[in-house]
Structures are given as structure tokens and as C-alpha cells.
From TrEMBL:
Kinase is among the record's keywords: no
Molecular-function GO terms, alphabetical: guanyl-nucleotide exchange factor activity
Organism (species): Oncorhynchus kisutch
Region annotated Disordered, chain positions: 902-935
PPR repeats: 738-772
GO cellular component, one term: cytoplasmic vesicle
Record GO biological process: regulation of Rab protein signal transduction
Name used for this protein in its record: DENN domain containing 4B
UDENN domain location: 189-638
């Protein structure tokens, strides 16, 4: 069943700026006013003219208020010193950011603020008398830091106001709400100031299109020509900067377009600066930019030239945060480098490979680079339309009352002009304004971020909602009939000749309830965004985490719910006044007056608010709403949801919108970055694909973890093991697709009462840089709150437990000694050893340390080492690579030792073959017992290659794993041999595990891998063979199969595909299916793939217990108790095709006298002799692998017909090296072979070598081998 294709996330990628053919300059007025330099205010001073003080040099004195009245600061004093405020502009200091007034004694100076305490002539600058009954008043200011860049927000104008004279703050000015006149007489005086971006010398041009991708228009959505203007709404500026100017950070902005069919298209852009050549300017332009002296036209070299540019993405989905991260990555990538991969590759990969999150793909993790990633989550399922609104930003920037004022303005269709110095805030707030009137829709002009070229819309004779950059008012004055909203200062400016809008004009009960709700939410919002609480301390994690992170999304919906509750109360009962059509249609049948009983609706409302309802019902929004309710509309689901909300009796007591993430999927799709080309030396940058596969494998195990813990008797030990796995993952820098691993372990900590472990897991999660979502944090809180915490008081019980541990350890320690005393085999050192151990325990007990005893270590210290101890110690060394074997000399010496006694050596490798075990006869039991003993000794030998080429049983983990499924490996009765080696039917080549991994894709529905030799896609297979190891405890199994060992072949799944299938299985059949026998019978693909991956990583499981009780095992052994099962992972295929030549390592083992699993190899006529094998090994040992490759190719060329070889030349030589020299030479062989391949590519040609399958594995495949097979790197 094919999965429905998800829509594309991004439609276009656009680069806007100064067009290559030249952009038109803005109109002459804008050019002149825009080119004017507005220097910021950098110094303030207070002077007392009545005491003879003059205005300092370079300063400007404010002598008049806004209305032309005297602006003396000390008019309320008896002895008026005639104090005035002065300021100085410039660029030699950081600009002043804010102004304030300080009442000394009533408040303290805020951090970062400066107080003007004295005049330039060292007199007091207090604006009050400072007597015993009064407090002194000073002016304060806050300056930008020294490291601030050139284009910073600063004070550009200052004014004084006398409200008693009817003076108000000019548009875009911020008023300080503290009276400067604290005297006993005189009018109140207030300070106001304007903040703007301090611009450099600039030329302004209209933005043009530089490049786009794709170059051809999408049929359903052609690229609008106006996109460059929206990317740079204030135009392209060419600016002159001082040489020491700090580089400007990019500015993020968003905008909304409306397509021809009425759909919204969302744009996200970042603006930045690039160097611009001086040669492109005329002499007049250079003079205007200050690059040429006005007098003698001499070039000024201490300035640089910069031009503004923008990159943008267009999408039908408002994922503004995701787009900002992607565009920032593109910008950083473009200014850094050099890079192996071109920037265009990353852009095309993001556009074509990243789909929109869907129910099948609820979470998409996009790995942009090894250090940059972003996460897309499926939007919350809601009848409300998806938009780019941010109700949190609406409440932050406007406050409760002003937000309700704008709600009134939108409902009555006023002209609204929003402006801010933050372009991204404009779009978020504008989208919230048109969303908070749901179910009414705004049908008038709507431009959240309006370019300068389209500013004429402000003169339109119709309602509109338009947002502009605040620098627009440096060029033009706003129209008088427009309601201007300054989002930076939270002020609303209205025409003086009209009655100002007030939220009290809304229906009294509903309006008051809305204001109260928003006020309470505003208090919560202020607590959440209080600075200084983001420190990741343990106290913060346990108390304030949900306020900072967990409540943000919930708060967004609560604010939206408050407006929805208001609208549902406002329009309650409207359906009773809908008029059905009962007569033949006429011209007025579809009019709103024929579809809705307007007078009846108005009479049902409060009389005191008839004016408001009359204005509302006359709007285009209300008319369109009635038409949508009366006829077929695409908004039926939304309208039905609103009807349900309006039918609620007491909406203030019922939640209308719920944030329910419990039913959202946790399935994560991992999008890999584009592959980087291989460098000439054959190396490449670290590949993220293997990390992705490894992360999904660990995710599989944690999904299985609840089943494993439930089956274990020691629950706490199993949870500790899982925690050690988490730490090991952090050590290996495993890339996790999501936070399910941590969440499951937290849930189990709560289930089994381990709150301390839950805290450690959360700290580990923070250490990994993962922020828990609401679900994970809820499980964490449940674990730490509902579980019983251990007592911190170390009383007598703990001390008695320590003493008990010591006594039990001594008792266990003496048991083997007593046994040896009976047999008389104890040396004279026994007494000394006993005394040493007793002394050790006494010291530990006196130091009050917790006793943790390793009994095997103690027993080995108290008995003489024997052959059995030597074998077991070597086995541990080989399996876990803790101790390297003793050196036997140089590599040449080892080769000579291997080659000379070839025919007389007794191999210590695995000598038991399947054919030998299947054969019967009188000597069967004796032979099988001896072969089993030899097989046990073989565990200490090096890697056995070929049909028995073993993958290591466990990786070299930093934590011990107690394998509950094979606690008695020596007594194992069944052995499962597994291999993922698969045959490509197209080119008849064997493809091995790391090559299969490298050929998988990130599509979690694709089972195919690609052949590294012919690039054909095929489904790899995972083969398993269950073998009977013979008698247990010296008794032969009477139920051994005589018909052959059972074999299972299933599809070899990528960890991404396997995780998706496992999650689907658990969702449909429940978690209990993982511990039932039907998993092996009905879901064999999932079962065998899980066994393979868990053993590859050395992760514990109870899956093999299902094999013991399965019909497959019963075919071989029918004994009670059921035999133990062990697993061996093989590198090569389990069923080689004997019609082909045997591989080199098989021939080497035949000449070494090692019995093989298939004896037909002995009768095969092949061209390789023992001398040939010894010669190849000699070239490898002497670091001349190219000669070994040439010898192999020449030997093949001499044979008639097509060579009967299924393995690549690299694989033949690698396995031969492993069989002869051991596993430790794999990494060295890889380097030698790669160097030899590069050397032969010049003489034989790379294409010829690839045709003969002589190329080494790709770096991607080698990286997969390193990630999954750590011992192979040794």
C-alpha cells in the first residue's frame, strides 16, 4: 500500500538585492530624505543658565516644548536657576538607548543606568529643591555597550511636553511617565524621546531579483514579482561605514502574500550586508557617501562600502522558526569556508527532501550539517486555521487593554497601521489580529509588512491592516484617518477630531471578562519571561522548568481561547436569526438582509451596546460570515466548531481549546544532509548517516526496554543498565531522532519507584542538549513526585548492611578454600592470602565505604592459576579488548611463523562443522563432545573468517551488561548463526553489511538498498540458522534433527524502517506482543531484525527466550529444561554458492587443516594455490598491497571464460588477512588498500578497476562499520 505523498515544505528560494542590470532609485523626495544622516544622541547635560552656565560646545539646548512654550526644567522652584536640558549627537561614542527620571530616596538606580548628578560646571543637577520634605529629582540614561554594531537602536530626538497646554507626544515618541516638576507650583512637565536606527551615509534603491530556485514557476503557484520588495521593504541601501565598524548581524523578517486564489503564502527572509565595489559608483554618489572629499575630490580610504542583500523562502506553511534557522545556516555557510559542498546543494536538498509534517511523519528532524539541525513537528490538530499568528507576542507588545482596543478596531473595520523596528514582530502581531476575530474573516487589504513602494495603500478609501517599518516615518507622515499602533512603545495614536477607541465600547460583560483573562495571562507571561531564570541548575529543573518551557505553547492557546470565548459570547444565538429561502430565488435572495434577521438579532442584544452591534453587522466581515453559514463553504468544519463553542452554557468554566499531545505521533523522520563528494586523497568529512542509523538502533532498544525490565527479576539493575546505555550513547555522540529514549526510562523510573535515577536521566538529557517536551516533562514530574525518595539519614540500618556485606563476602571467600583443603591442593600462600583479604575488608569497613565485591576476582586471588583460568582470562581479553595478546615479534616474523608450519599446525579456531554435527555413527557422541571442547577453546582465538567470519559478539562498551538470556554460555544447547550478507541479482555480487547500510535511504518506507558495484536497488536479506550444539551436561540430545538445521530468511530492514514497523506493531497489538511467542511466528521480520541489532550493539534482551520455546528449536532439541541459546553474528553468507570459486580465506583454512561447514569446497577446481595465498599475504605484510592486487588480477586474467567470483577483490584480500593475521589488522589493511587503489588508478585506470570490482568500500560504508563494529577499528 503506497503512502500518500506529503506536500512540499518550501516552494521557492529567492535572493533579492541590487539587481545585476541596475535597480531604479527611489523617488527624489525619498532619495533626499533617506540620504540625510540622522546621528544618534551620545551625550546629555543639564545646565543652570540662571547661574551663568553656558551651553557646552557641540551641544544643543532644548529651549522650547513641543508647543513652543519655555522648556525650563526648574520652573517649580522658588529660586529658579533656569535649568535646561542639552544633548550632543555624533558617532564617537555608543548611542544612548533610553532616558528616565529618578526620584532619589524613593527608588534605586537600575543596573546599567547613569545618573546626571552634576552640571558641566560641577553644580548639582537636581531638578528639585531637595529640602527635608521633598526628594531630589535627577535625569538618567542608559548607553549602548561598546561592542554594539553600527546600526543600533538609539535615541535620535528629545522633546519636552506640557500636558496642561494640550501638548501630546509626537508620533513614534516614547513618553517617560514621571513629572519633572516636583515643586509646589508650576505646570507638570514630561520628557519624551524617539528611538530609531542610527543610519550611516546611504543610497537607497528599489529591490530587485538576483536569483531564484527553481527557475521555472510552479504551475499551481507562480512566483510573485513583488517578492524582492517584501524581502527588502525599505529598499536596497548602499552604505559607507568606518573601517573599524563591527560587522552587522543579519535581521530576520517575515511577510504574508495572498495568491490569486486567495490562499496565504508566507515568506521568511534575512537581511545582511556584503562588500560593494567602489568602481560601480559615480563621482556624485561617492561624494554623497563620503568616499570622496568635497573640496579636492580626493578619495577617502578609511571607509568601506557595503550593500544590503536578502535571502528568502516562500511556503504555504508558517514555520517561521524553522525557516529562520535554515536561512541563518545558509548565511553562515556562505560567509565561512571554503566548503567541499556548494551552498546550492544544501538549498536544493532542503527544498526537495523536506516534506510537510503529516500524521505518517509527525516529526521531521533535518540534519543540515554535523552541528546544525532543526525539527519540524506536525501542527496541533485543531479546527482553527493554521496561521503565523503569535498571541504571546500580541500580548507582550500591546498589553491586555490595548489588545482589546485593537480587537474593537478590527471588528468595526478601522484603518490600522502597525509599525515597529522589528519586522518579524509585525507579521506575528498582524496575523494574530486577523485570527482573534474567528469566525469572522478580514476581507479588506491586508499587508503585514508593506514595502516602501506600496505605501500608497495607506491612502486607500477602505479599511486595511498594514504594517510598516518604523523608519517609514523618517520619510513620511501618517494619514490623519489612520489608527497608528507603535509596537515598540505600546502606544496607539488616533485622529484628534474623532472619539478615541476604548475597549469599554465592547459589550460590558464580555469585554470585562476578556480584559481580566488577558491580565491574568499577562502576569503569567511576565513570570515565564523573567530574565535570569534560564540557568540549568537542579533547582531550576525541578521547579521552574515548566514555566519557562512547558507553558509557552499552552499559554499561546490560552490567549487564543480567551478571544474565542469572547467571540462565542458575542455571536451567541445567531443561528436562530438565519432566514431560510422559502420562495423562488430573485436578485435579492442572496443578500445578507434576506439571509439574516438583522433587526431581531439587534433586539436580542443589550440596549447599551446597540451602536457597537450596529457597526459590527454593517461590516464586510459579518456579511461574508452570514453568507458562509447560509451556503456551501469550505469552512464548514471551522463553523461547526464555533457553533459548538457558542452553545456552551458557561464558556468561562469550560476549556474550548485543549493542547493534547498524548495522541500525537512520536515517529520521527530523519533527513540527512546532502552527501559530500570524496576528496582526492580518498577521505571525506565525518558522515552523519551512520550516526543516524546508530541513534535509531538505540531508539529501538529503548522502545523494547519496558518488556525487558518487566521480564527481569532485578528491576533496579535493569534500569541502571539502561542509564549506563544512555551515558554510553552520550560518550559516542549518538544522534537521537527524538527524546523517546529518555521519556521511556523516566516513565519506568516512576513505575518502579526510582526518583533519583529519573533526576539523573533528566540531567543527562540536558547534558545532551535536548529540551524535554510537555509529555516527557509530565512523566518526569510524575516519577519524582509520586515515587518514594530514599532517606538521606544514614542510620544504623546502613551500617548493619555494610557489616552484613563484609561477613557474607568472607563466607563466600572461604568456601573454595575449604574445598581445596579437602582435596589437599592448597599452597602455603593460602593463609597469607586469607590474612590479606581480611585486612582489606577491615580497612574498607573502617573507612565506611560501600562494599562492592567481585567474587570471581577474590577467588582467583586465593587459588593457584591453572589452565582453565588462563583460557577464561584470554577469552575476556579477546571479547572485550581490555588486554592485548603478547607480541610475537614484528609483522614479518608473524608471517614467517604463519607460513612455515602451515600443514602441521593444529588450529585453535572453531573446528565444529554443521556437516560433522549432523553425521551419526558409533563415535558420534564422543566426537561431538571433543569437538565441543575444541569449540570452547576456539573462543579465545582470533576472528574466524569465511562462512564462519564472525562479527564481534559485543562491542567494547563502557558499561557491564548482564545477559539474562545466556547466563551459562558453556552449557548452551542451541546456537543461532546470523548473517546479513546478501546477493545482488543484477551483477551477481555479494554485498556486505556496511555496504548495505550505506545504500539505505532516509525514507522509512523504502526497504531497498543499492549495490555498490552496479547501483541497482535490491532488498537485502537477513539469514538465520539454528544449530544444535550437542549434549548438555555430557548427555547427548535424543531429539536432534536429522533433516538439517532450520533456516530463516527475512528482509533486512533499515533501523528507520524497523522502528516505524515496531511502533505500528505496538500501536495495533499492544506492548505484550513483544514477550509472546507469536512475535516469532507472526512478525518474524521484526523479531529477527531486533535480535540482529541488539546483538550488534551488545544490548541485553529476552528475545532469545522466544527462540527456546519456538517450533524451530523443538525440531533440534526436545529436552527438559529447554536448552540455552546463544547467537553468533557472521560477516559472510551462511549459504555460499559452491558453483563459484571458493574465496581465498576458505582456501587458506583448508590448507591449514580446519574443517569447514561445507566440504564441497575441497572438490572444487580453482586457480589459487597455497603459494599464491602465501605470496598475497607476504605483499600485505610488507605494505605493498598494490602488488597483491596486481597478482590477483593477473591470475584471474589467465583463466579462460568469466571468473567465477562473487566477492570483490577488496573483500577477498580483507578476509584472507583476517583469517591469517587476526582482527587487529583491519584498520591498517583499509589504509593500505586505499593507498594501493589510488596508486593503481593512475596506471590501470579507475574505471577499469571498478569494472573488475577492485574498488575499496565507500567512506560512508567504512563509517558505518566504525559506528557499529568498534573492535574492527583495532
Amino acid at each position: 500500500m503506497t503512502e500518500e505523498k506529503c506536500p512540499q515544505l518550501v516552494d521557492y528560494f529567492v535572493v533579492a538585492g541590487l539587481a545585476p542590470g541596475g535597480s531604479a532609485p527611489l523617488d527624489e523626495e525619498g532619495q533626499q530624505r533617506g540620504g540625510r544622516v540622522v546621528e544618534p544622541v551620545i551625550d546629555l547635560a543639564v545646565i543652570a543658565r540662571g547661574l551663568g552656565e553656558e551651553v557646552p560646545e557641540g551641544f544643543t539646548c532644548i529651549e522650547k516644548t513641543q508647543g513652543g512654550h519655555p522648556a525650563g526644567l526648574s520652573a517649580g522652584l522658588i529660586n529658579n536657576p533656569h535649568m535646561y536640558l542639552c544633548y550632543r549627537r555624533g558617532h564617537d561614542k555608543p548611542p544612548i538607548l533610553d532616558l528616565g527620571v529618578l526620584y532619589e530616596g524613593k527608588e534605586v538606580v537600575k543596573q546599567g543606568w547613569n545618573v546626571i548628578e552634576t552640571t558641566p560646571y560641577s553644580r548639582s543637577a537636581s531638578l528639585s529643591s531637595g529640602g527635608p520634605a521633598t526628594h531630589r529629582t535627577f535625569l538618567t540614561y542608559r548607553r549602548a555597550p561598546e561592542s554594539q554594531a553600527l546600526h543600533t537602536l538609539g535615541v535620535t530626538d528629545i522633546s519636552l511636553l506640557l500636558p496642561s497646554k494640550g501638548e501630546v507626544a509626537p508620533h513614534t515618541f516614547c513618553r517617560v511617565e514621571k513629572n519633572l516638576n516636583t515643586g509646589i507650583w508650576g505646570p507638570a512637565l514630561y520628557l519624551c524621546y524617539k528611538r530609531a536606527v542610527a543610519k550611516a551615509n546611504a543610497l537607497v534603491y528599489e529591490a530587485g531579483l538576483i536569483s531564484r530556485y527553481p527557475e521555472a514557476d510552479v504551475e499551481s503557484f507562480p512566483l510573485p514579482e513583488s517578492v524582492p520588495m517584501f524581502c527588502l521593504p525599505m529598499g536596497v541601501t548602499v552604505e559607507s561605514w568606518p573601517l573599524n565598524t563591527k560587522y552587522q548581524l543579519p535581521v530576520f523578517s517575515t511577510f504574508v502574500l495572498t495568491s490569486a486564489c486567495g490562499d496565504k503564502v508566507y515568506g521568511a527572509a534575512i537581511q545582511f550586508y556584503e562588500a560593494f565595489p567602489r568602481e560601480s559608483l559615480s563621482e556624485r554618489q561617492s561624494v554623497r557617501l563620503g568616499l570622496v572629499s568635497v573640496v579636492d575630490r580626493r578619495p577617502i580610504t578609511n571607509r568601506t562600502l557595503q550593500v544590503k542583500k536578502s535571502v528568502c523562502v516562500l511556503s504555504h506553511w508558517p514555520f517561521f522558526t524553522v525557516f529562520q534557522k535554515f536561512l541563518t545556516f545558509v548565511y553562515r555557510y556562505s560567509i565561512s569556508g571554503p566548503h567541499v559542498l556548494p551552498l546550492e546543494k544544501h538549498i536544493s536538498s532542503f527544498m526537495h527532501n523536506v516534506p510537510f509534517p503529516s500524521p505518517q511523519r509527525p516529526r521531521i528532524l533535518v540534519q543540515l550539517s554535523p552541528y546544525d539541525n532543526l525539527l519540524l513537528c506536525q501542527p496541533v490538530s485543531s479546527p482553527l486555521l493554521l496561521s503565523g499568528a503569535s498571541f504571546v507576542k500580541l500580548l507582550q507588545n500591546l498589553g491586555p487593554e490595548n489588545a482589546c482596543v485593537l480587537l474593537l478596531a478590527v471588528l468595526t473595520e478601522h484603518k490600522l497601521l502597525l509599525h515597529s523596528l522589528r519586522p518579524d514582530v509585525l507579521t506575528s502581531v498582524s496575523e494574530a489580529l486577523v485570527s482573534m476575530t474567528f469566525p469572522l474573516r478580514w476581507h479588506c487589504p491586508y499587508i503585514p509588512l508593506c514595502p516602501l513602494r506600496l505605501a500608497d495603500v495607506l491612502c486607500a478609501p477602505m479599511p486595511f491592516i498594514v504594517g510598516v517599518h518604523s523608519s517609514y516615518f523618517d520619510l513620511y507622515d501618517p494619514p490623519t484617518d489612520v489608527v497608528c499602533v507603535d509596537l515598540d512603545t505600546n502606544t496607539i495614536f488616533q485622529a484628534e477630531d474623532k472619539k478615541p477607541l476604548s475597549w469599554r465600547s465592547l459589550p460590558r460583560k464580555q469585554g470585562k471578562m476578556l480584559v481580566n483573562t488577558l491580565t491574568n495571562l499577562m502576569k503569567t507571561l511576565e513570570k515565564i519571561y523573567t530574565s535570569g531564570q534560564e540557568e540549568a541548575t537542579l533547582e531550576f529543573l525541578l521547579t521552574d522548568y515548566d514555566l519557562i518551557y512547558g507553558r509557552q505553547k499552552q499559554l499561546e492557546l490560552e490567549i487564543q481561547e480567551a478571544f474565542l470565548r469572547f467571540m462565542s459570547c458575542l455571536l451567541r444565538g445567531y443561528r436562530a436569526y438565519l432566514l431560510p429561502i422559502t420562495q423562488a430565488p430573485s436578485d435579492r435572495t442572496t443578500d445578507c438582509s434576506s439571509l439574516f434577521n438583522l433587526q431581531g438579532f439587534l433586539k436580542s442584544r443589550e440596549r447599551t451596546h446597540q451602536k457597537f452591534y450596529t457597526q459590527l453587522t454593517r461590516t464586510q466581515m459579518f456579511t461574508q460570515f452570514i453568507e458562509e453559514c447560509s451556503f456551501v463553504s469550505d469552512r464548514h468544519a471551522c463553523l461547526e466548531f464555533f457553533d459548538e463553542c457558542s452553545d456552551v452554557e458557561k464558556p468561562e468554566e469550560v476549556r474550548l481549546i485543549d493542547l493534547d499531545e498524548a495522541h500525537s505521533g512520536e515517529h520521527t523522520v530523519f533527513i540527512m544532509p546532502p552527501e559530500e563528494p570524496q576528496e582526492p586523497d580518498g577521505s571525506e568529512l565525518p558522515d552523519m548517516w551512520s550516526k543516524c542509523l546508530l541513534g535509531h538502533c538505540y531508539g529501538l532498544w529503548f522502545i523494547y526496554l519496558p518488556t525487558f525490565v518487566r521480564a527481569e527479576s532485578a528491576k533496579v539493575r535493569a534500569l541502571q543498565t539502561a542509564y549506563e546505555v544512555l551515558k554510553h550513547m552520550e560518550t559516542r555522540k549518538v544522534v537521537l531522532p527524538d527524546e523517546v529514549c529518555y521519556r521511556i526510562l523516566m516513565q519506568l523510573c516512576g513505575q518502579y519507584g526510582q526518583p533519583v535515577l529519573a533526576v539523573r536521566v533528566l540531567l543527562e538529557m540536558k547534558k545532551a542538549g535536548i529540551t524535554p517536551n510537555t509529555i516527557t516533562y509530565a512523566y518526569y514530574n510524575k516519577a519524582v513526585l509520586e515515587s518514594k525518595w530514599p532517606s538521606t539519614n544514614q542510620g544504623g540500618r546502613l551500617r548493619w548492611a555494610k557489616l552484613r556485606n563484609v561477613l557474607m563476602a568472607v563466607a563466600q571467600f572461604r568456601q573454595p578454600i575449604k574445598q581445596r583443603l579437602k582435596s589437599g591442593s592448597v599452597r602455603s600462600r593460602t593463609g597469607q592470602d586469607i590474612f590479606t583479604c581480611y585486612l582489606f575488608f577491615t580497612i574498607v569497613l573502617s573507612l565506611r565505604y560501600t562494599i562492592r565485591i567481585c567474587l570471581p576476582f577474590l577467588c582467583s586471588q586465593c587459588r593457584p592459576p591453572g589452565p582453565r583460568d588462563t583460557v577464561s582470562r584470554k577469552a575476556v581479553d579477546e571479547n572485550y579488548n581490555n588486554v592485548s595478546p603478547p607480541s610475537r615479534g614484528s609483522l614479518a616474523g608473524k608471517l614467517q611463523q604463519l607460513l612455515t608450519p602451515t600443514r602441521h599446525r593444529v588450529s585453535g579456531r572453531r573446528a565444529t562443522s554443521v556437516d560433522a554435527r549432523r553425521s551419526g555413527g558409533e563415535n558420534g557422541p564422543v566426537r561431538r563432545v571433543s569437538e565441543q571442547r575444541l569449540s570452547r577453546k576456539a573462543q579465545v582465538s582470533s576472528l574466524s573468517v569465511g562462512s564462519d567470519v564472525d562479527l564481534p559478539e559485543t562491542t567494547n562498551l563502557a558499561f557491564p551488561l548482564r545477559k539474562s538470556w545466556d547466563t551459562n554460555q558453556e552449557g548452551a544447547g542451541l546456537e543461532v548463526l546470523m548473517s546479513s550478507c546478501s546477493l545482488c541479482r543484477s551483477c551477481n555480487s555479494l554485498v556486505y553489511d556496511e555496504e548495505i547500510m550505506a545504500g539505505w535511504t532516509s525514507d522509512d518506507s523504502n526497504l531497498n538498498s543499492s549495490c555498490p558495484f552496479c547501483s541497482t536497488t535490491f532488498v537485502p536479506l537477513l539469514n538465520a540458522e539454528i544449530c544444535d550444539l550437542g549434549p548438555i551436561s555430557g548427555k547427548r540430545s535424543q531429539g536432534s534433527s536429522v533433516g538439517g538445521s532450520p533456516q530463516v530468511t527475512v528482509a533486512y530492514l533499515s533501523p528507520l524502517v524497523l522502528r516505524k514497523e515496531l511502533e505500528s506493531l505496538l500501536e495495533n497489538e499492544g506492548e505484550a506482543v513483544l514477550s509472546q511467542g507469536q512475535l516469532l511466528d507472526s512478525h518474524s521480520i521484526i523479531f529477527w531484525n531486533m535480535v540482529w541489532y541488539f546483538h550488534r550493539l551488545g544490548l541485553p534482551s529476552n528475545l532469545l527466550q522466544l527462540v527456546r520455546s519456538s517450533p524451530l528449536a523443538n525440531q533440534l532439541a526436545q529436552v527438559t529444561p529447554l536448552p540455552a541459546v546463544r547467537v553468533r553474528l557472521l560477516w559472510d553468507t551462511l549459504t555460499p554458492d559452491t558453483d563459484y570459486w571458493p574465496p581465498l580465506y576458505i582456501l587458506w583454512r583448508i590448507h591449514s587443516g580446519v574443517p569447514m561447514r561445507n566440504h564441497s569446497w575441497r572438490r572444487h577446481n580453482h586457480p589459487f594455490t597455497l603459494a599464491f595465498l602465501e605470496e598475497v599475504l607476504r605483499w600485505v605484510g610488507m605494505n605493498e598491497v598494490h602488488k597483491g592486487i596486481t597478482l590477483f588480477l593477473e591470475t584471474i586474467a589467465k583463466q579462460p571464460g568469466t571468473p567465477k567470483i562473487q566477492r570483490s577483490l577488496y573483500r577477498e584480500m580483507l578476509f584472507l588477512t583476517l583469517a591469517a593475521m587476526g582482527r587487529d589488522h583491519v584498520a591498517a589493511f583499509d589504509k593500505k588498500y586505499k593507498a594501493a587503489y589510488q596508486r593503481l588508478s593512475g596506471s590501470l585506470g579507475r574505471e577499469e578497476l571498478r569494472r573488475k570490482r577492485a574498488q575499496p568500500p565507500s567512506p560512508k560504508a567504512v563509517d558505518c562499520r566504525r559506528s557499529f563494529l568498534l573492535p574492527l577499528e583495532c
